């Protein structure tokens, strides 16, 4: 991420934090106003209280009608929100800011992943000197995936100024679950959601999950690869898995399955025997199996 991107990210996160603080104030004031209205409602209808006896003298018909309507709404709905119009606007802005942050964080990743399956990518594989019978340990990850790995490893440093545990505003803003691939624990059910301890952990987890999803989608859009390309894709996925492990994250099962399937498909093609692929598909997602078979032009094992 360049300096302009980092500055934009910090500005957006600061704005998100301020918006979260605003939401906290609005919700606190709404609660106070609710208590005040309930107290007034009781006095308004309490016998012997001057306000209840002479309310028509204190209020004109229209204001009195609006007050009674408000009290009725409050009575019928315990969770009635008096500041709802303002809160709705704030939540909409919150969602827009989180979307912008996600676009900023994912932009460097998409720039690299977009190379996958391109003619340049295919030319690199075909002209790399990689032989079809090269063992797995001889494969090096391609530049696009190493660039992604380096970016993910540096991301905590870019997010370091924002700590979720000590930042109520950012916590409140992120708790709306607007950020793609992220969910904070429910305060009433802490066993659910992602248990990241900081904004860095939360956002890093979201970006990593989105990265894995984007990589999987890009791989499945590839039209065709030979044994060399299949081995290379497996090596690239393995590299990303190592990056995830270093960051304390877990690579999605779908990507791990893709790596196994591409590795098995390459072996089956080289041996002219689908037995390797047939044994590898046991328990795998049938959609991934069909996709890898199509991408590698592997004949059906039936």
UniProtKB/TrEMBL annotation:
Residues 177-196 are annotated as: Disordered. Keywords: Golgi apparatus, Membrane, Protein transport, Transport. One of its GO terms (cellular component) is Golgi transport complex. It is found in: Golgi apparatus membrane. It is a peripheral membrane protein. InterPro entries: COG7 (IPR019335). It holds the Pfam family COG7. Belongs to the COG7 family. This is Conserved oligomeric Golgi complex subunit 7. It comes from Daphnia magna.
């Amino acid at each position: 991420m360049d300096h302009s991107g980092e500055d934009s990210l910090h500005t957006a996160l600061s704005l998100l934090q301020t918006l979260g603080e605003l939401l906290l104030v609005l919700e606190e004031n709404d609660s106070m106003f609710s208590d005040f209205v309930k107290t007034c409602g009781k006095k308004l209808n309490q016998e012997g209280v001057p306000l209840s006896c002479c309310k028509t003298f204190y209020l004109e018909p229209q204001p009195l009608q609006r007050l009674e309507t408000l009290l009725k709404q409050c009575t019928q709905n315990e969770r009635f929100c008096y500041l709802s119009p303002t809160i709705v606007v704030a939540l909409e802005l919150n969602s827009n800011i989180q979307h912008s942050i996600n676009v900023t964080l994912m932009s460097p990743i998409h720039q690299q992943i977009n190379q996958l399956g391109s003619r340049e990518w295919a030319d690199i594989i075909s002209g790399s000197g990689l032989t079809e019978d090269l063992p797995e340990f001889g494969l090096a990850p391609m530049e696009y995936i190493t660039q992604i790995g380096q970016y993910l490893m540096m991301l905590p440093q870019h997010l370091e100024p924002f700590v979720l545990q000590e930042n109520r505003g950012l916590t409140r803003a992120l708790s709306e679950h607007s950020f793609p691939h992220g969910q904070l624990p429910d305060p009433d059910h802490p066993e659910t959601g992602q248990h990241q301890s900081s904004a860095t952990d939360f956002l890093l987890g979201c970006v990593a999950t989105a990265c894995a999803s984007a990589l999987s989608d890009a791989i499945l859009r590839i039209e065709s690869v030979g044994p060399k390309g299949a081995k290379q894709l497996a090596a690239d996925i393995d590299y990303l898995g190592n990056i995830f492990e270093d960051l304390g994250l877990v690579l999605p099962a779908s990507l791990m399955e893709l790596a196994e399937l591409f590795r098995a498909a390459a072996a089956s093609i080289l041996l002219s025997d689908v037995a390797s692929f047939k044994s590898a598909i046991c328990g795998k997602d049938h959609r991934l199996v069909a996709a890898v078979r199509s991408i590698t032009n592997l004949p059906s094992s039936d």
